[in-house]
Amino acid sequence: MALSDSLLILSLALAIEAAVGYPNRLYTAIGHPVTWIGRLIKRLDGSLNREDWSFRQRRGAGILALLALLTVTGLTAWALSALLQPFDLIGILLLAILASSLIAQRSLHEHVAAVSKGLHEGGIDGGRAAVSMIVGRNPQSLDEAGVSRAAIESLAENFSDGIVAPAFWLGLGGLPGAVLYKAANTADSMIGHRTPRHEAFGWAAARFDDLVNLPASRLTALLIIMAAALHRGASAPGAWQAVRRDAAHHRSPNAGWPEAAMAGALGLRLAGPRVYGEVRVKDRWMGDGRAEATADDIDRALALYRTACALLFGLAAGSALLAWIIAR
């Protein structure tokens, strides 16, 4: 597939997903690509992750599982792309509709906005209930500032791996590129944990996910900095300084970039020590502003996010036009 076609598909997919998201009726009827990928990962985990094997054997099995996952999902996406591509504009539109299911602009906004609404209307209990839907940490351990920071951190990190990353690989590799990314990211979320069962088996999935998210995390930080330059009350220089100073010190090689950018833009401190389940995680603060975030700060972060999404669409559409002009 020509680069101009994949960038056009990306532009259309971003517009479609922003307008309609992934309809609940469709999810109820057939599920979602991520749930289909998740079933395959679960089967691979159940059949290849054997507890009586050594650490080395389980790590090897995890590498094999990742290769099998990428092969099956990649070939499926390639076949769909090859089937639809000859239909010119109709095929491109159909591919864009399929690809839109791999991007989560609308659903991410809705889930994070629900935390702000929960705090405004239901107080701390409403905020805790809403934030428990999007983060893995224990909501009962969070006060209002903790709930607000958790929502903003989730917004920043998921902007990178739920939107910018699949968009990046879609633009670069068409539908197969986006599907392969989504398969890798889903594998990391399901088995890429340092638990007794998955520390060895999920090693390959976690490392590969770190690798494929590297370009998107940097691009996400840049989009947030650019968005901050367009918003009164946000600081593009503050975002830039926080990224330069703090991003590399996050325990994740990628999450620190969008989180630091968002923290610096809003004058907040994000990340830092926090509790997942019963485990306390030590991490560096991103940003040097106030830690006492509020529901109003969630709303400010969402405004930046909407602008950054618009900038991403503009970048995709402009790149598609430039690629088309060059190809002529």
From TrEMBL:
Q: Which residues cross the membrane?
A: 61-80, 86-104, 308-327
Do the record's keywords include Transmembrane helix? yes
Pathway entry: Cofactor biosynthesis; adenosylcobalamin biosynthesis
Record's subcellular location: Cell membrane
Judging by the UniProt lineage, the source's domain of life is Bacteria
Q: Name one Pfam family in it.
A: CobD_Cbib
How is it placed in the membrane, per its record? Multi-pass membrane protein
> What are the alphabetically sorted keywords of the record?
Cell membrane, Cobalamin biosynthesis, Membrane, Transmembrane, Transmembrane helix
Give the protein family.
Answer: Belongs to the CobD/CbiB family.
Against HAMAP family, the record matches this protein to: CobD_CbiB
This chain's function reads: Converts cobyric acid to cobinamide by the addition of aminopropanol on the F carboxylic group.
Its recorded name reads Cobalamin biosynthesis protein CobD
Q: Which gene holds the coding sequence for this protein?
A: cobD
